[in-house]
Amino acid sequence: MKNLLLQLCLFLVVASVTNAAVPPLNVTVSDSTGKTAFKGTTKTEGDFATAKLQPGSYVVQFTATNSAVKNGQYSIVVGAGTKKVVANAVAGEKFLGGGVAMKVEVGAGLNVAGQVVSGPTVVNSRYYKDSLGRLQDKAQDQHQEGFQGQNTNKMIRP
Predict the structure, then answer these.
(1) Nearest-CA neighbor of 27 among 39, 37, 36?
(2) Domains, the chain, with CATH or none
């Protein structure tokens, strides 16, 4: 019995480290004119999805008010259909300042979906693994650095 209890405790510790939770982040999706198309928060697994959007360029901005993100390192994958963008190794402090923003192109009849995961890469993201359900060629991936605040002309290293 003692051995079983020890094994159970060890399993729970390993499981919690493997699936480290990401504190809820605020997500704002704006079109090329700056008009807000979506505003919400990430779910318990760090994911979010908008309704279908008009075709065009969008900026997805992540911010936080929870200081639990401060000392963490996160990775983000955002996509619309077969196109996705990735930001790896983003310092948690960036979410508390002006936020982290990513540009994404949206085609006709598509929505924007994504996920924020703990760690230096998005390899643990289900959105990255299933490639948003549509990506068939990894050569279509586009990696970009995160950039801060509403001023999309000044990029900062994640």
Answers:
(1) 39
(2) 22-143 (2.60.120)
Which of helix, strand or coil describes residue 142?
Answer: strand
What is the Cα–Cα distance from 132 to 138, expressed in whole angstroms? 12
Where the chain has pLDDT below 70, the residues are 1-20, 124-158
8 A C-beta contact, residue 74 and residue 116: yes
Q: What is the pTM of this model?
A: 0.71
Q: What is the mean pLDDT of the chain?
A: 76
Cβ atoms 75, 89 nearer than 8 A: yes
Can you say whether residue 119 is alpha, beta or left, with left for phi > 0 and alpha for psi between -120 and 50 degrees? left
Beta strand 83-91 with 142-143: parallel, antiparallel or unpaired? parallel
**What is the reported pLDDT for 16?**
38
